[in-house]
Amino acid sequence: MPGETGFSHRFDRTNAILAALVFVISFIVYAMTVQRTFSFWDCGEFIACSYILGIPHPPGTPLFVMLGRLFSLVPTSADIAHRVNYMSVLFSAITAMLSYLLTVKLVRHFFPDHGHSGTNRYLVYLGGLAGAFFVAFGATNWANAVETEVYAPSLALSVGLIWLTVKYWENQGTSRATRYMLLVFYLAMLGIGVHMTEFLVMPICALFFIMKKDATPRDWMIICGYAVMELLLVIVLANGRGGYPAYLGISVVMIIAVMLLLYRKINWGIAFAVITISTIMIGFGLYLELMAPLTLLYTLIPGTDFSWSTFTFKTLVYWVVLIGGLSWAIQLEKKGIHVQWRKGLAIIFLGFLGFSVHLYLPIRSQLNPRIDENHPARDWRTFVNMLDRKQYGQESMVARMFHRRGAWSNQFGRHAHMGFWSYFEEQYSPGGWVFVPFFLLGLLGMIVAIRRRLELGIPFMTLLLLVSVGLILYMNFADGTHYNPQTGDAYLEVRNRDYFFTPAFVFFGIAMGMGVTALLQLLKEKAAERMPSLQPVIVYGGTLLLLLPVVSLEKNYHINDRSLNRLPYNYAANLLDSCDKDAIIFTSGDNDTFPVWCLQEVYNYRKDVRVVNLSLLNTDWYVRQMRDQYNVPISLTDEQILWYPYEAPGRPGTYGQRPKKQFPDRPRKRMAYLEPSIWNGKVVRVQDMMVDEIVIENNWKVPIYFSAPPYADSPLNLRKFAVATGIVYKLKRNPDSNLIDVDTGYNLYMNTYRFGGYQDSKVYRDENATGVFLGVGMNGIRIADELMRRTDTTRALTLLNRLDSLYPEYWQIPMELAAYYDARGDSATSDSIIQRSIDSLAAFHRSNKENLFYLQDLGLLKAELGRRRQDQGLIDEGINLMWAGFEGNPNSSYAFRKLVSTLSQNGRYTELRRAAKMFTRYGVNRSDPIAQRILQSSFSPG
Predict the structure, then answer these.
(1) How far is it, in rounded angstroms, from Cα 204 to Cα 736?
(2) Under a CB-based contact definition with an 8 Å cutoff, are residues 535 and 8 in contact?
(3) How many angstroms separate the CA atoms of 311 and 788, rounded?
(4) Three-class SS state of 723
(5) Is a pLDDT exceeding 50 seen at residue 308?
(6) Among residues 199, 184, 205, which one has the least CA distance to residue 282?
(7) For 532, which DSSP code?
(8) Which helix (H) or strand (E) holds 524?
(9) Element housing 460 (H / E)
(10) Angle, CA 849 vertex, CA 846 and CA 853 arms, to 5°
């Protein structure tokens, strides 16, 4: 029977079949392209934690880990990592199916009969299918679907929450609607155990629940207009124009104004519950202070430290307000004034119940799993700080919005690693002008939605603004031009940040689906006025619009096909195989650590090697974990390691964190706290002190390796003892002066290292992957050069030829071979080697067009070949390619050095200065010696 909005609840068999079809097609495509092992970045960590039920990086994602554990038990593949990857496949296929159902729900309201008549019904389904496949085959959403990351389940939940909210709106005023509302709040708080993405859509869901059924279009315009004004306020007040304090003041005034205008249209009991749950957006700590019962549950976990100081004045005030408000609401209820306090209490209880999944963290941490980041079982403060991600900085993300870390044009426009439009225009099409019809289709969908059913259209448009403009403002990604050398903040983002904007791309895909229905409906209405006989042609001919998602499928298939990609697996195995038995290896970041963790914990490979991550070594919990769980030689006691709050001397009310006792910093001949400090005019990091401590305490008992050369300022002069051994660096007591272990390295390259996929240009790799592998080529060439110096030409050529065939993307290898033949007067062979490498790099570039390494290296080799042949046209072509690669990311030191070397070699002095100016626009490069030398030199015109 019809619901409150006149919408029918009859089961639509065709709709269900089409939804299932979307799921099946999406699932098949994702299953064909899913990673068979593990990817770079967080994927190895998440897979390892899922398999052993560990604790990943903050905020811990407990629900995601438990779901991953379930998928690791399902025998879909012999490879455990492959099994866990299927979690993303499944949830992304669910996202596509829910996107279809949501699009259908929204476009039904374009029609007076809710799309139940023959042709209208067809247009509804057509828009749903188009929207679902735009979502399914969008570049970033697809990338999330083929590897173990938190975004696939969180997006499925986000789309599901909006779908349930629309169902609530259609049934408003019924018990069914209440059940939908309570389910939304429970799932949203539960979903935080995967990722915070759900809270991007919850403001819109909350508006539907807070607004009464009799709210008018004007009321919706006011409430959504307020949300948009909040975004505009951030833009207007940022960068010293009032900032956070002014924002808070103006926001309070606007909230009061909205309340005065809409107080008769607000469900106040629900509004109070929403405000309570919304405190989690300010900080997990604030929410947990209010939710005192969760604190009491925490105290029941054996071994955790608890203090009654956890209950703050805010806790008391909140519960006084809650109990007082409840009493007042009950009195109003007796007088016949309904404030829906029962629903409000139910929301608070269910929200608390959903969030309680985070108790997994201290419970599991108490059992000391091998991966136990932050060790949240230590005490309540540590648990809350982990949830609040304090490890990554103390400043509030909201306050930070008003100090922009990049130029507006770069954050909203095109820029390497972070520009929103760079990602947006290439989600569904090749970008540029080809994207225009896709963009117009999405705009049309939103416009028609607003015109036909404003109560749905305006909130949907607001949602799109929140997950696009709102995220740009909130995430505040750095473009490198605002780099602060004192704090080290605001350097260019280390990798592409498109995945943060996935909600925007998903909901715009739905908007394009709405646009398909809207376009055909408008054409049909025009035909009805002038040529009714054309209506069936327009309706059924509109099926051709389903070819638009095929463009997305074709464009994005290769870049998201991980089915043959074993590069991270092989790289991690090569790192471990470089180490002797029972060794310690210091790793630098995510990509030389997480894949190794996965190999050790999931594949049980080389667990004798102890991995010490330098970034994590800056934290107290990790130092203790290395000492106690991994038996890394560290002499410090708990009182010398673990940080506690303390009041800074001479600055009353200013608190920091440090251990209770100092430790003997032996290399610097001082007593020091294990915290960053100044020594000889330079900052000494915790990781620096701990590297020295481990080396001294080890006293040559077990081999020690580094995945990159050790830090240069060590008082132990570690770099003088770090010998290149394959792709790693081994500390040796009495190293040779050249610091290369030629024989061991040669054996590793020739007999041990795995190169599967390196030589295949069809295996997609982004710039990150290419950058990770550079050391493979550089260290291989160092060995070959040393062999040449020793006149061991046979082994040198054998190694170079092996690398040239197995790792053809590295441009220096053919240059080395060419130099060898040049020295023997065989320029023809040299030219043929370079030409062969040009052909190989051209294939890599065609297959990986977004990878600027290939563009620049291809240009470099063409310019070199042109110089050798005295072919100015080829030189110009090569330099133009190098410029295109450099302009794609002018912050790249690697690209800058290759470009200026080639420009200098060819006498392009004016262009040299231009390149240096572009490079030094980025703060981190302003003191670069090569750039400064160019800018300070006088060149004759060239």
Answers:
(1) 66
(2) no
(3) 70
(4) strand
(5) no
(6) 199
(7) G
(8) helix 502-530
(9) helix 454-465
(10) 105
Would you state the torsion angle of the CA atoms of residues 682, 684, 689, 695, taken in this order, to the nearest 10 degrees?
-40
Q: Which two tokens stand for residue 545?
A: 């619009």
- Cβ(406)–Cβ(418) below 8 Å: yes
**Token pair of 889 as six digits:** 């990311």
What are 871's two structure tokens? 């072919």
Contacts of 269 (CB under 8 A, 6+ apart): 329, 339, 340, 341, 342, 343, 344, 345
Number of continuous H segments (helices) and E segments (strands) in the chain: 42, 11
End-to-end CA distance of the chain: 81
Q: Is 511 helix (H, G, I), strand (E, B) or coil?
A: helix
Residue 64: what are its φ and ψ, rounded to 5°? -60, -45
CA distances from 204 to 161, 348, 459, 466 (A): 10, 18, 6, 9
The residue among 417, 392, 390 whose CA lies nearest residue 406 is 417
* pLDDT per residue as tens digits for the range 115-127: 567 788 889 999 9
Q: Whose structure tokens read 């003088």?
A: 720
Helix (H) or strand (E) holding 933: helix 929-936
CA nearest 898: which of 819, 820, 837, 815?
Answer: 815
Output the average pLDDT for the chain: 88
Two tokens, residue 648 = 């800074």
Of the candidates 815, 131, 177, 185, which has an alpha carbon nearest to the alpha carbon of residue 509?
A: 131
DSSP letter (8 states) at residue 216: -
Taking alpha carbons only, the member of 752, 692, 700 closest to residue 726 is 752
Q: Is the dihedral of CA 527, 532, 534, 536 positive or negative?
A: positive
Categorise residue 10: left if φ over 0, alpha if ψ from -120 to 50, beta otherwise.
Answer: beta
DSSP 3-state percent helix, strand, coil across the chain (nearest 5): 65, 5, 30
Burial of 519: CB neighbours in 10 Å, binned 0-12, 13-18, 19+: buried
Of 371, 329, 378, nearest to 630 (Cα)? 371
Q: Which of 485, 488, 487, 494 is nearest to 927 (CA)?
A: 485
- Please state, in angstroms and rounded to a whole number, the distance separating the CA atoms of residues 584 and 435: 51
Please determine, for residue 327, whether its predicted confidence score (pLDDT) is greater than 60: yes
d(CA 563, CA 408): 38
Name the phi and psi angles at 2, rounded to 5: -65, 145
Distance CA 402, CA 398 (A): 8
Q: Please, what sign has the CA dihedral across residues 457, 461, 466, 468?
A: positive
**231 vs 263, higher pLDDT:** 231
DSSP state string for 36-56: SS--TTTHHHHHHHHHHT-B-
Tell me the CA distances in angstroms from 8 to 109, 115, 172, 317, 682, one per residue in order: 12, 11, 13, 46, 71
pTM for this entry: 0.92
pLDDT digits (tens, 9 = 90+) for 271-283: 877 877 776 655 5
744-936 under CATH 1.25.40, yes or no? yes
Phi-psi region of 418 (alpha: psi -120 to 50; beta: other; left: phi over 0): alpha
The SS3 of residue 655 is: strand
In angstroms, the Cα distances linking 784 to 796, 802, 832, 922 are: 5, 11, 20, 36
Task: Please report, as a single letter, which amino acid is at residue 30.
Answer: Y
Average pLDDT over residues 15-32: 97
According to the model, what pLDDT value does residue 285 have? 54
Which residue in this structure is represented by tokens 């003191």?
927
Per-domain residue ranges of the chain: 567-739, 744-936
Other CB atoms closer than 10 Å to residue 136's CB: what's the count? Answer: 30
When pLDDT is averaged across residues 888-907 and rounded to a whole number, the result is 91
Residue 2 has pLDDT above 50, yes or no: no
Tokens standing for residue 377:
């079982």
* Calpha distance 165→161 (Å, rounded): 6
Report in angstroms the alpha-carbon separations of 834 from 178, 784, 829: 70, 18, 9
Q: Which of 270-284, 479-493, 792-806 has the highest mean pLDDT?
A: 792-806
